């Protein structure tokens, strides 16, 4: 299958291969307004029906309408740059800053619809298929490929003997199994291969090691390393320079004396997560994991400790995408915070757990503590985030798997000085109809932020909710 664009900057050109002609469906342009520039040396063809559908979608304030207007402006810029007419195509090299070296072709003639009688020509999808059939007949020695986000459209195209494929450029990874987990198990012979010339010293109660060896080039800054066995090692990579790396041992949050708001880590990955959440040098944390792995509980415990005890942050701000799992229940009364209340059941559940850990003071004490905690937690809607700046806040983005990369960028760029952002979610539970595991905003930020000295990521593996929840997650 042909890739439409070099992802992460790697060229996929095959030497001497004939350029292909990609016919774009409207949904590709609405999905990615810059898609005409994403096909490298190949040519891009836009049927007239695509332009008509763009025109029908341009009104409104939704993301689709916004993208339709952006595509129209991009196409206007491309067409206006051509003085000699557009029949032979418009070179994209200059306009795309050499990102694309092919041409943009627009349908400039009427095309007779020669489709099977079962396909009505009044339907716009079928009119685009007729254009692809016509182009294939005109170019028998050239690959003509329909690019569409519509699965049924691609099936119809293949039924007619046409080449069709999805638009891949929005996918961060082809296989989410390759997604960075933030942890690495060291081989059993690690010290044999990396122990030569080992340097070790103490700093602020922690042990640091400087090592050299074959594993060093594969390591990323803030990646967690562990070695089980007779002499276990749990460490985080602090720096990688050339052939040397510096490790630092971790705070053991599994021990009750290091409990965070009464919560101790129950497994290795939870311990790693708390080391990120409690580290003031880490500005951005991503936590992945299935239901019941403790993402929200650990994050809230760390947030409350740093807001109410160490006073590192002024308050906790929590937000999430309001995508219903079943049918929508309609409009909700009240203020912004009250409207967000039903979506924040997870927050209340976890606050109950955190409040019960403080058993002193009886019922009155617990009620007072709960009120104090709730006063320091603000619930905000994503709809009103644009243009805001958060100073010294602990910002939690829950259910982040339902965000697009663009929405994720909008949220993370709200962070002002002294603000920590925590994104958490489960990419196996995407409720938004137009996102996949490969194109989710959460997958996007995990991949793009790995190795940055002020960010960290952990994929939580083991459920700690209950034996019922663990078994259900495994068998259902």
Describe this entry's structure for a reader.
With 476 residues, the chain is α/β, with parallel strands linked by helices. It is 30% helix and 18% strand. It has three domains: 7-165, 5'-nuclease (Rossmann fold, 3-Layer(aba) Sandwich), CATH 3.40.50; 176-249, Elongation Factor Tu (Ef-tu), domain 3 (Beta Barrel); 281-475, Rossmann fold (3-Layer(aba) Sandwich). The protein is built from 14 helices and 18 strands. Strands 3-4-2-1-5-6 form a six-stranded mixed β-sheet. A six-stranded mixed β-sheet has the order 7-10-11-12-9-8, with no helix packed on it. Strand 10 (224-227) and strand 11 form a beta hairpin. Residues 5-17 have low confidence and may be disordered. This is PhoH-like ATPase. GO terms for molecular function: ATP binding. In the N-terminal section; belongs to the PINc/VapC protein family. Belongs to the PhoH family.
Considering the chains and any ligands shown, give keywords for the structure:
14 helices; 30% helix; 476 residues; Rossmann fold; Elongation Factor Tu (Ef-tu), domain 3; alpha/beta; six-stranded mixed β-sheet
Gist?
With 476 residues, the chain is α/β, with parallel strands linked by helices.
């Amino acid at each position: 299958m042909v890739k439409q664009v070099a992802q992460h900057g790697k060229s996929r050109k095959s030497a001497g291969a004939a350029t292909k002609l990609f016919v774009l469906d409207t949904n590709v342009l609405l999905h990615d307004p810059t898609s005409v520039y994403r096909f490298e040396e190949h040519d891009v063809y836009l049927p007239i029906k695509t332009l008509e559908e763009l025109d029908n979608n341009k009104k409104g304030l939704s993301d689709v309408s916004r993208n339709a207007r952006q595509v129209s402006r991009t196409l206007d810029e491309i067409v206006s740059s051509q003085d000699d007419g557009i029949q032979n195509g418009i070179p994209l090299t200059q306009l795309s800053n050499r990102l694309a070296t092919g041409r943009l072709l627009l349908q400039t003639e009427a095309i007779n619809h020669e489709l099977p009688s079962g396909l009505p020509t009044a339907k716009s999808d079928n009119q685009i298929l007729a254009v692809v059939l016509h182009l294939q007949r005109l170019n028998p020695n050239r690959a003509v490929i329909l690019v569409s986000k519509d699965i049924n459209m691609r099936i119809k195209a293949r039924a007619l003997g046409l080449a069709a494929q999805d638009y891949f450029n929005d996918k961060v990874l082809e296989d989410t199994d390759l997604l960075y987990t933030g942890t690495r198990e060291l081989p059993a012979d690690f010290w044999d291969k990396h122990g030569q010339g080992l340097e070790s010293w103490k700093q602020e109660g922690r042990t640091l090691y400087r090592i050299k060896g074959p594993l060093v080039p594969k390591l990323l800054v803030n990646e967690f390393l562990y070695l089980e066995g007779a002499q276990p090692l749990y460490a985080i990579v602090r720096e990688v320079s050339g052939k040397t790396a510096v490790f630092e041992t971790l705070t053991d949050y599994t021990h009750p004396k290091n409990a965070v708001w009464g919560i101790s880590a129950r497994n290795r990955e939870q311990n790693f997560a708390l080391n990120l959440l409690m580290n003031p040098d880490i500005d951005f944390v991503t936590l992945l994991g299935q239901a019941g792995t403790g993402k929200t509980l650990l994050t809230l415990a760390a947030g409350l400790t740093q807001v109410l005890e160490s006073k590192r942050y002024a308050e906790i701000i929590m937000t999430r995408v309001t995508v219903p799992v079943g049918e929508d229940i309609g409009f909700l009364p009240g203020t912004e915070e009250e409207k967000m209340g039903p979506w924040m059941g997870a927050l209340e559940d976890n606050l109950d757990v955190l409040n019960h850990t403080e058993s002193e003071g009886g019922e009155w004490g617990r009620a007072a503590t709960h009120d104090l905690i709730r006063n320091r937690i603000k619930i905000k809607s994503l709809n009103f985030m644009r243009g805001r700046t958060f100073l010294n806040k602990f910002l939690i983005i829950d259910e982040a798997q339902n965000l697009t990369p663009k929405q994720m960028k909008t949220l993370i760029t709200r962070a002002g000085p002294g603000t920590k952002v925590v994104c958490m979610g489960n990419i196996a539970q995407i409720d938004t109809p137009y996102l996949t595991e490969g194109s989710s905003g959460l997958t996007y930020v995990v991949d793009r932020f790995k190795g940055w000295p002020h960010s960290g990521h952990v994929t939580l593996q083991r459920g700690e909710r209950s034996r019922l929840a663990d078994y259900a997650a495994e068998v259902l």
